[in-house]
Specification:
The chain is 37% helix and 16% strand. The chain is α+β, with helices and mostly antiparallel strands. Helix 1 runs antiparallel to helix 2 and helix 3 crosses helix 7. The N terminus and C terminus are likely disordered.
Length: 264
């Protein structure tokens, strides 16, 4: 399988997805999901990771991160969280081998309405999977933390999230967030929205065109298309070999836009 190239664009909001190796349910126990979130908290403390939302499922994770201009923060944070989670699990289970798929994937998301849609998509992951009927029933996600802000072990940067959503107050943001989720849940059958996990960027046309311009020659062959989530920059026609067996999942197989610390 061709390995994804990784690029860095400063100042973006990133929807990051990371799968367990071969889609194994290595996060099926609540203790392991809890440990992942504890290490995520450590990443916030150590590196200043700006977290806007999160969802830890049984075999993959979603993170919504705001980049603050230091290109080392997200890679260092992902290395810490993924590495320690995998090490602890393998030690406890006397297991050997990879815990994660080798690369996590990142999609740039525009602030405002598109950020809100991405949040709802993340919040309702386990509802689409048929595990729970409402996000509040799944502990390992950011929905409850947004609705009832914590005083200790805070993961989400509430003030940053409020500003990026354009809310006048936290109460306004919280009420809007709850309303978005309820509206989504009331709209009937839900399918996977591939734009959030298979695109380089999602947003308005000016936003995705800007991302494409910033990529320069690296964007050659990539197309700007209009989808249900907004305009998207998609990969070209490059072929990728089979990854694993196709399963019903919220993460697509062909999101090839990932992260890298470029040194040139």
């Amino acid at each position: 399988m061709a390995r994804a190239k990784r690029h860095y664009i400063p100042g973006c909001i990133w929807h990051i997805t990371h799968r367990c190796h071969k889609r194994e349910f290595l996060l099926k126990f609540s203790r392991d999901r809890h440990r992942y979130l504890q290490w995520l908290y450590q990443a916030r403390k150590r590196y200043g990771l700006t977290i806007l939302n999160y969802m830890v499922t049984s075999n993959h994770v979603h993170l919504l991160i705001a980049d603050e201009g230091d290109r080392s923060v997200i890679p260092n944070s992902m290395q810490l969280v993924a590495g320690r989670t995998g090490q602890e699990y393998n030690q406890r289970k006397a297991r050997r081998g990879a815990y994660w798929e080798d690369r996590y994937h990142a999609t740039a998301v525009e602030s405002g309405d598109h950020l809100a849609r991405c949040m709802v998509y993340m919040d309702t992951n386990m509802v689409r999977a048929g595990v729970v009927s409402h996000p509040s029933m799944w502990v390992s996600c950011g929905y409850n933390e947004i609705q009832a802000p914590r005083r200790k072990n805070v993961l989400i940067d509430y003030e940053r999230l409020q500003r990026l959503l354009g809310a006048g107050s936290y109460d306004q943001m919280r009420n809007s967030h709850r309303g978005w989720v309820e509206e989504y849940l009331g709209n009937g059958e839900k399918g996977r929205q591939e734009g959030w996990t298979r695109s380089i960027a999602v947003g308005s046309r000016p936003f995705v065109e800007k991302v494409k311009t910033l990529l320069g020659f690296r964007a050659k062959g990539r197309k700007v298309i209009e989808g249900a989530e907004g305009y998207q920059v998609r990969e070209g026609s490059a072929r990728y070999g089979a990854l694993f067996g196709a399963e019903k999942d919220d993460i697509g197989l062909e999101n090839t836009y990932s992260w890298e610390i470029n040194t040139e």
